[in-house]
């Protein structure tokens, strides 16, 4: 059976503490909880904001569970951003592993 190109994927445990995190979730998801130093660019804004994404370092792309971020990784790689990696399990895995999170609404950080 034919399969598309392989998307580079990493688990939460593979991610360095100083990794560049690109969060492609929607605004309400971001507000509820995200990695402290992540860059927020909703998925549909990626083409217009591709220049905001570094080319000179690894970029870990994250969404809620990994589906949207895999699509973004594929798009970015097709556009010359070879150092992009999908976070397996997304923010759900991030939160479950106890990695730091912050919220923008004053509540406890959470994944919605």
Q: Give me the strand/helix succession.
A: EEHEEHEH
**Low-confidence stretches at least 5 residues in length (pLDDT < 50)?**
none
Structural class by helix and strand composition: alpha/beta
Beta-strand fraction estimate: 5-15%
Spatially, the strands of the biggest sheet line up as 1-5-4-2-3
Largest sheet: 5 strands, parallel
Report mean pLDDT, rounded to a whole number.
Answer: 94
- In helices, the fraction of residues equals 10-25%
State the distance separating the first and last CA atoms.
35 Å
Give me the number of helical elements.
3
Shape: globular
Number of strands: 5
Radius of gyration over all CA atoms, rounded? 13 Å
Structure in a nutshell:
The chain is an alpha/beta fold. It has helices at 27-32, 67-78, 90-96, and strands at 9-10, 20-23, 39-40, 59-62, 84-87. The mean pLDDT is 94.
What does this structure look like?
This protein is an alpha/beta fold. The chain has 3 helices and 5 strands; from the N terminus they run E-E-H-E-E-H-E-H. Strands 1-5-4-2-3 form a 5-stranded parallel beta sheet. The chain is globular, with a radius of gyration of 13 Å. The termini are far apart.
